[in-house]
Design brief:
Structural class of chain A: alpha+beta
CATH architecture of the largest domain in chain B: 3-Layer(aba) Sandwich
Distance between the termini of chain A: 46 Å
Shape of chain A: rod-shaped
Order of helices and strands of chain A: HHEE
Largest interface: A-B, 45 and 61 residues
Strand order of the largest sheet of chain B: 1-2-3-5-4
Largest sheet of chain B: 5 strands, mixed, barrel
Oligomer: heterodimer
Number of strands of chain A: 2
Distance between the termini of chain B: 155 Å
Radius of gyration of chain B: 40 Å
Number of domains of chain B: 4
Order of helices and strands of chain B: HEEEHEEHEHEHEHEHEHHHEEHEEE
Strand content of chain B: 15-25%
Number of helices of chain A: 2
Chain lengths: 78, 422
């Protein structure tokens, strides 16, 4: 998979690919150049997982039924 | 001539008329309890009433022993007993021999019937249960907007895998509750969330009743999105719980089921990091061996220096890795879980904890980068297809190579090739 795709990957996809790359590295058959390539790709994916996990702002909203359909509103709990 | 009798005689006669009449003996009377008084003797005195009328009632201590609940004011009951007259006061009353909460028997009966029916249709089968997603992006919640349920879910999810929460406010008890819950489930299915939690806090069987309604059971079964049911306390077992894909004893447990623990995920990433570390070390070791054998042919003394330097470099990397690992275990122990909501004017936001462990992971990965070996002035030479060039014999005049250095690469064309040794 090309690096450009990483940004659009979900956490689950990133983690899955990261684990595949770790297995590839572990196979022990990689040359230095290929090892580097896999390493770099794994680093990008690790950063992606980190970014998602670190995301502090999560939306807490409620769904409201209106005459024009549904809309979302921020939910404030007292 | 009319008979003359005393008050006592009159009341005694009325009493015997009442006692001998099967129309007012051994029957169930339904009504609501009010003015309940419990005496030290263990007897209960109260008024039994309905919309149009009322009667004094008494429940003697020995009859109370037959019942499995404590009578209370405004409780709707069916009381079994006889009408009697209290001669001294000339007041008649209903003497209760047994009592049950009205409607409850019928409710249980209906519940059992529905369970049988849905079971026969296979709605409780484990093959009908959908798996919960591992890393949901949005959790839908159908519950009261004011109860403890949504509060507990928001609080708990703050320390789990980060996901948005979308609440559909629903009525969870009383008339119209079942319809409201069904509408919530359908609305979230239209909206597209990854997992749904439905629930309410504890209460009487009547309070939880909406979650025993057939329309709710059918909406759960029809949902395309997996549903976690968290209704009442652990001991309450509603039909919703049985039809749902997962059953949680509490709202907190429901949030924990929906979202994996961040610490667990971090642990997983650490395991991956450790595996990468080993593999990369192996690659670096192979490089070391390669330089040693090549250099020993050019200049034995310089080769030895280089090998020593490489060894030191690798030892240094190992140390940094180890201290990185220690740092991670420490930060794990120290980590504070902050799941408070910081409410700003834009709305409620969850401030999750920062994962310092991951920072440690980055440092370790960087420390392991084989490119760091190039810091010392070594270059990495690749051929036109990106493969490592390890032998001069593989090159000839005109070959194009890519020389990779610490901070970039240079493409070069070979002018001349000399092969050392034999």
């Amino acid at each position: 998979m090309a690096n450009e795709d990483t940004e659009s990957m979900t956490f689950e996809e990133s983690l899955k690919t990261l684990e595949q790359l770790v297995k590839e590295l572990e196979s022990g058959n990689l040359d230095l150049d290929k090892g580097l390539e896999v390493y770099e790709r794994a680093t990008v994916l690790r950063d992606r997982c980190k970014k998602i996990l670190d995301e502090a702002d999560r939306r807490v909203q409620k769904l409201i039924e209106t005459s024009e359909g549904t809309k979302k509103e921020d939910l404030v709990i007292d | 001539m009319a008979e003359t009798i005393t008050v006592t005689q009159l009341n005694t006669r009325v009493r015997s008329i009442l006692n001998g009449n099967t129309a007012v003996s051994d029957l169930w009377v339904t009504g609501e309890i009010s003015n309940l008084k419990k005496y030290a003797s263990g007897h209960y005195y109260f008024t039994l009433k309905d919309n149009g009328s009322e009667i004094r009632g008494v429940l003697f201590k020995n009859s109370r022993g037959r019942m499995d609940f404590e009578p209370m004011d405004s409780m709707k009951v069916a009381a079994f007993g006889n009408v009697d007259l209290y001669v001294e006061r000339g007041s008649y009353q209903f003497v209760v021999a047994n009592m049950r909460k009205s409607g409850v028997g019928e409710l249980y009966l209906a519940l059992e019937e529905l369970k049988k029916k849905l079971k026969a249709e296979g709605l409780f089968e484990s093959s009908c249960k959908r798996p919960l997603p591992q890393y949901p992006l949005v959790i839908g919640v159908v519950t009261s907007p004011t109860g403890a349920v949504i509060h507990d879910i928001i609080t708990t999810s703050g320390r789990r895998f980060p996901a948005d929460i979308l609440l559909v406010p629903a009525q969870v008890q009383g008339d119209g509750a079942a319809e409201s819950i069904v509408a919530g489930i359908e609305s979230l299915n239209r909206h597209g969330v990854d997992v749904i939690i439905i629930g309410r806090g504890g209460g009487s069987i009547e309070d939880l009743w909406a979650f025993n309604e057939e329309i709710v059971a059918r909406a759960i079964a029809a949902s395309k999105i997996p549903i976690i049911s968290a209704v009442g306390h652990e001991t309450d077992n509603t039909i919703s719980d049985m039809v749902a894909d997962a059953r949680a004893p509490t709202p907190t447990a429901a949030a924990e089921m929906a979202l994996r623990d961040r610490k667990e995920i971090n642990k997983q990433l650490d395991v991956d990091a450790a595996r990468m570390r080993r593999s990369l070390s192996a690659i670096v070791d192979r490089m070391k061996g390669r330089y040693a054998s090549v250099d020993s042919k050019i200049a034995p003394r310089r080769a030895q220096d280089r090998v020593s330097m490489l060894s030191m470099r690798i030892d240094d990397l190992s140390n940094r890795m180890d201290s990185g690992l220690k740092e991670i275990s420490r930060s794990r122990t120290d980590r504070l879980i902050r799941a408070s909501y910081g409410i700003n004017h834009g709305g409620a936001r969850l401030i999750g904890d920062r994962n310092r462990a991951i920072t440690g992971f980055s440092e370790r990965l960087n420390a392991l980068n084989p490119l760091n070996v190039l810091d010392r002035g070594y270059c990495f030479v690749a051929d036109g297809e990106g493969r490592a060039v390890t032998s001069a014999a593989s090159l000839g005049p005109g070959s194009i190579i890519a020389i990779r250095m610490r901070d970039g690469r240079a493409d070069a064309e070979i002018k001349k090739v000399e092969i050392h040794g034999e």
